[in-house]
Amino acid sequence: MKKHLLYAALLGGLCSLGVTSCGDNEDVSREHVLTDAEIAEMARQDSIEEAQRNQINADLILEYTADITLSTVAYDGAHVTVETDKIAELFGISEEDLLAGIALESGAPEITGFAIEGSTHADNMTASNSNSTWGHWFDAKGDVVAWGTTAMVCCEFNTDDKYFNVMQYPGHLTDGQTVKVIEGLKYGEKRVAVVITVNAHGAAAITAPVVSTQKLSIDVNPASTYDLNNVQFDADQVKADLGISSMDDIEKFVAVKSDGSYAQESDAGTNGFWFDVDGYASGYSDNSRIYTSYGGDEWVENEIGIGQYPGKTAVGDSYTFNYGFLANNKIVMMEITVNVVAYNDPETAPEGTPEEKTIDVTLTKNYTTDYANVQYDIRDVLRQAFKMTTYQIHSARVSGDLKIYCKEESSEDPEYTADVPGYWLGEDGSAVKFAEGIGWVSLGTSETELYLYGGNHPENVSPTAGATVKTTYIITCNGGKVTVNLTLQIDPQVEE
C-alpha cells in the first residue's frame, strides 16, 4: 500500500502542473505506469533542483586552479593570485580599501569574508577558521570543516601580496584527487565568489641510476633523546661521481622504501628520513628506529647525522639502510649500518652512602611568547646525594626510578604535568595542568648533563608585569634525597 500511496502523491503533484488528467487515474488500487510525459516532467524538475544546487550566488565569479604536490609531513601547497582589482571595481571602492577591509583594519570598509559550501552552495558566514582574516579549512566535498580528521585543504588570504595560500593537510589528500572550494566576499548587496579547484598529485617517480655506493658504519649507545651522532663519508668522491663542484649542488635527498622506490620528501632532521626496524624509509611512527640528517647550520660536508627514536633501541640492535644524494640524474648511495652498543661510563660514582641535601635554586628569565627556557646545573649535587654517576642518574630518570615530588613527598608515584619529570606550576607553587600554569620546571638529563630547566606560559603571564612562583621540589633516587627550594622568576618582556 505504501507504494500505491507514493504514486498517488506523485500524480497529484503532476496533475497540478497540467501534465495529465486526474480523471484518467481514478483507480489507485493498482500500480500506475508512468507516461512518457510524466517521466519527462520528473527529469525536468530534477534538472532544476540540480541547477539550483550547483548555482553560485554571486555577482562576480573568479575561477582559479591550484596544483599541489602531495606531502605526508608538510602543509605545502600553492599560491593563487586573486584579481582584487576586479573585486574592488564591483564593490565601487579602491583596491587599497578592499584589502584593508579584508584585513579588518580600523576605519576600513566593512568587507565580510565567508565561504560557500561545496555540497549545497549554501553560505557559511564564518569569516575564517584559519590563521588569516579570510580563509577556511575544507573537506573533500568543499564544505567548511575544522582543522583535523576530515580537513583536506585550507585557503588563507594574504592581504599584502593579494593571494590565497592554498595548503594541504599532510597525508590526507590522495594522488589524483580534486577538491573544489569557494571563498566569498560581501560588501553591501554585492557578492564575489572565488572558486579554486585544487588538484593533488604525487611527486614524479625517480628513475635515476645509482652510480656508486659507499658503505658506512657507526656504533651508538641506546638513546633517550633525539641527539645526533655523526658518521663520516667521502664527500669528494660523491661530488666527483655526481659531476658537481659542491655538496650545495645536491638537487634531492632520497631514501629507499620497502617497495624499492625512493622517499624524496624529508621527514626528519635536515634533509633526512626516518627508517623502520627493517631499515626502510617509512616516515615517523612507533616502528621508527633511526633517522638521518644532513646540512643545516654549522654542518660539515662529509658528515651525516644519525639519530634515534628515544627508548626504542637496545644494546645488540643493528640497522642497515640506504640514504642517497641525487644530482644530474645520478644517485650516490650511502649504505649505513648503525650498531647499538653499551655505554662506556667514563665516571666513577662518589663513595659513601646516599644522603639528603637541601639547596636553593632560582631560575630567572624574561617573559617570551614561546617556550624558551633557562637552565640550572644540578649535576654535582645529585651525584653526591645519590652516589651515582651522571649516566646512572640519567638512566634512572629514563626508567622512572628517579622521582620528583612537588611540595611534599608521597608514597604514591608522582603525576607529572610537564616534561617528565616536572610540573606546570600555579601561582601558589602547586602542581597544575598546562592550562592553569604560570610556568614549568623539569629535570633534564643526558649521559653527561643534569639540569633543572623552566619557562613561562605565554598566555597566563603578563608580558609587562611578569610573575614569581615559589615551590619545593623533592628529588629522590637510590635512597638519597635532594630538596630544592625553587624560585621561578619571570621578568617583564624585553622590548626590542
What would you say about this model in short?
The chain has 496 residues and is of the alpha+beta class.
Written overview of the protein:
The protein is of the alpha+beta class. The protein folds into four domains: 53 residues, no CATH class; 142 residues, no CATH class; 131 residues, Sandwich (Immunoglobulin-like); 136 residues, Immunoglobulin-like, CATH 2.60.40. The protein is 15% helix and 36% strand. The chain is built from seven helices and 27 strands. Strands 1-9-8-3-4 form a five-stranded mixed sheet. It has a five-stranded mixed sheet with strand order 10-18-17-12-13. The longest helix is centred in the first third of the chain and has 19 residues. The protein starts with a helix and ends in a 5-residue tail after the last strand.
Mean pLDDT: 91
The proportion of residues in beta strands is 35-45%
Rg estimate, integer Å: 32 Å
Q: Please give the largest β-sheet.
A: 5 strands, mixed
> How many structural units, i.e. domains?
4
Tally of separate helices: 7
Shape: globular
Helix content: 10-25%
Low-pLDDT stretches are 1-26
Spatial arrangement of strands, main beta sheet: 1-9-8-3-4
End-to-end CA span: 80 Å
Which features does this protein show?
Immunoglobulin-like, five-stranded mixed β-sheet, 7 helices, 36% strand, alpha+beta, single chain, disordered N terminus, 15% helix
What's the topology here?
Blueprint: H1 2-16, H2 36-54, E1 60-69, E2 78-81, H3 84-91, H4 95-102, E3 112-116, E4 123-124, E5 135-138, E6 153-158, E7 163-168, E8 178-187, E9 190-201, E10 210-220, E11 229-232, H5 235-242, E12 252-256, E13 262-263, E14 274-276, E15 288-293, E16 303-308, E17 318-327, E18 330-340, E19 356-366, E20 374-377, H6 379-386, H7 390-399, E21 403-406, E22 422-425, E23 431-432, E24 439-445, E25 450-456, E26 467-477, E27 480-491
Helix pairs in contact: 3-4
